[in-house]
User: Which sequence fits this backbone?
């Protein structure tokens, strides 16, 4: 068993980005069926155009599922305590999302991770943060990701210049 | 616009009929395939058991699907006159209380908790809370924010 509280995790540590293959129509059909979300915005170009999109867009929850992999690949399934995300921009069909995470704070065995998902054209489609427990039962192992020294992003969340409604505030989770 | 806003305001706090989902392994395999999930704890019963889990784990965002397990999962909006082509999923949160596994029967109970006008009324933000339980055990609390545009 690894006591992750002793792992040399630092504020500013970047997780190894999770690169996802491009999201194609079969991906969306499979996700619609598996997730139970029947919204035709993700399947039917005619409906997508009626919603003001040039073509179908990916489910926000698909991007969030990818972001979950970023966290559970790093810390195991039991570590994720709570998280919230905002969907900042639509992900048009054909785009390749990459999930990013950075340690924002460390305190008493908990880490706060800032998350974002970016498509290959630089659009940030999802932004959020997660509370992850670094002390877990045995059976899960901590993989220490490589330390990266990329510069911090200049902005986060609401000032990304997105046209999407970035207005959501959540009450604190209890 | 104000019709939608008022209709939504009027049902704040009213709980939708509970939605029940039995979590089949095949469903979790389909979800894993659709999301590129390869961690065997989510896809392989034996691997999950060897790591101390009773069965394949339910992945973190799959709990959103519990409340989708009904003939019209957006009826709570469309029944109030909301056109789904004007609705965007603006935000989502999860607070986890206990793990769930294949073989579990999960129940989702949802209610609208907040309705707010933004951008001078051009946008209505609807927040909906869902509690997922397994019998008397609390599994997770979800919060979904939907943005109704051109309302």
Assistant:
């Amino acid at each position: 068993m690894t006591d992750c509280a002793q792992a040399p995790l630092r504020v500013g540590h970047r997780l190894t980005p999770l690169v996802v293959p491009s999201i194609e129509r079969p991906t969306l059909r499979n996700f619609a069926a598996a997730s139970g979300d029947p919204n035709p915005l993700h399947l039917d170009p005619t409906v997508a155009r009626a919603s003001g999109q040039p073509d179908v867009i990916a489910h926000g929850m698909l991007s969030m599922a990818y972001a979950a992999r970023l966290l559970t690949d790093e810390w195991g399934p039991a570590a994720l305590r709570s998280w919230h995300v905002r969907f900042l921009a639509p992900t048009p069909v054909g785009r390749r999302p990459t999930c990013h995470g950075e340690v924002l704070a460390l305190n008493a065995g908990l880490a706060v991770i800032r998350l974002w998902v970016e498509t290959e054209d630089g659009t940030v489609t999802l932004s959020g943060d997660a509370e992850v427990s670094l002390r877990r039962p045995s059976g899960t192992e901590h993989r220490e990701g490589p330390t990266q020294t990329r510069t911090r992003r200049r902005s986060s969340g609401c000032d990304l210049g997105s046209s999407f409604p970035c207005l959501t505030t959540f009450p604190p989770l209890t | 616009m104000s019709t939608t806003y008022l209709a939504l305001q009027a049902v704040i706090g009213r709980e939708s009929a509970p939605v029940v989902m039995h979590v089949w392994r095949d469903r979790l395999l389909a979800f894993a395939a659709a999301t590129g999930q390869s961690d065997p704890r989510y896809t392989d019963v034996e691997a999950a058991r060897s790591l101390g889990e009773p069965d394949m784990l339910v992945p973190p965002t799959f709990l959103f699907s519990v409340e989708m397990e009904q003939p019209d999962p957006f009826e709570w909006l469309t029944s109030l006159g909301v056109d789904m082509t004007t609705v965007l999923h603006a935000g989502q949160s999860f607070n986890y209380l206990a793990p769930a596994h294949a073989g579990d029967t999960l129940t989702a109970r949802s209610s609208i908790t907040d309705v707010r006008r933004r951008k001078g009324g051009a946008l209505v933000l609807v927040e909906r809370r869902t509690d997922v339980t397994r019998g008397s055990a609390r599994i997770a609390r979800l919060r979904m924010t939907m943005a109704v545009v051109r309302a």
